[in-house]
Amino acid sequence: MTDEEHDAARVLGPHLVRVERGQRLEVRVTALAGPRLVVGTLAYTCDATIELQGPQPDYFLLIVFRGRLVCRHGKRYLELGSGAVVAASPEQLSTIRCASGSLFRVIRIRPDLLRARLAPLLAFPPEGIVSFRPLVRSLLGDAGPLAKSVRRLLTGPPGDRLTRHAEEVLVDWVVRNQPHQFSGGLRRGGWDSAELVAFVKVLMDSDPFSGRSMTYYAQLAGATLAELTGAFQEDGCLPHEYLRGVRLDCVRRFLLRGEQPSVRAAAERCGFRDNAQFNKWYVERFAEWPWETARRGRVE
């Protein structure tokens, strides 16, 4: 078994891959396995049919970044194009057909994590398997902040706080947005304050440059701007203050790594146009001038 085939087995579990006679199969895989999630991105060089072998203990989330997939979800076949996402319970997902050049992500969620994130939304703890309906939803495209927060599961260190945080945000999104037999009994009224702040912080950490206003992040979270502002105030800051801190952290990384030709270029790359105000915020956050950081980065 090659390294790529081994990684594919980590992502998909036991499976067989079938191709048309005469076609040469290659697979490219990026995988990360943690105690609660297994995340992987796969691309096959030719049309392929993936047959999952049972029993599969975990829940599946399929996200298509490029190309076209057809999956068998229970007794139905679902077609997924770019930006599509579908969730499946253990044993519901049996076959995945992917077109040549398709790029897709598979996320396997441990049952205890999914039940733990679902339980607070119900009046009673869920029992047995959570069965997802065969319905395809959109994940905002592969450039969306939520998709980028999922990427952090692949690129972030396994013990990183954001990685653990992003796991919970992802599963929260699944149980709220992918229909299942408990959907009708979910607690209404949207996020509570702590959940809303946690969700938006992950979006800001993952993609701090797309939003031109706080309304952008409020809409992604399904909240009003007033609800978002109030939730952050309860957490001890305002949403734009948190986002400013994330962007200042980005400037600091650029300076330490020498990835921009000047302090001004790094600041403008991260959305800071007023040089005097930027310097003030930078010193308040890091207790040194940005050019001192840049000088230390060049020395190191």
List keywords for this structure.
2 domains; Jelly Rolls; sequence-specific DNA binding; six-stranded antiparallel beta sheet; single chain; Helix-turn-helix domain-containing protein; five-stranded antiparallel beta sheet; AraC-bd_2; 300 residues; transcription regulation; alpha+beta; Arc Repressor Mutant, subunit A; AraC_XylS_family_regulators
| Mean model confidence by pLDDT | 85
* Share in β-strands: 15-25%
CATH superfamily of the largest domain: Jelly Rolls
CATH level 1 class label of the largest domain: Mainly Beta
Please name the CATH topology of the largest domain.
Jelly Rolls
Keywords: DNA-binding, Transcription, Transcription regulation
Protein name: Helix-turn-helix domain-containing protein
Domain HTH araC/xylS-type: 194-296
InterPro entries: AraC-bd_2 (IPR035418), AraC_XylS_family_regulators (IPR050204), HTH_AraC (IPR018060)
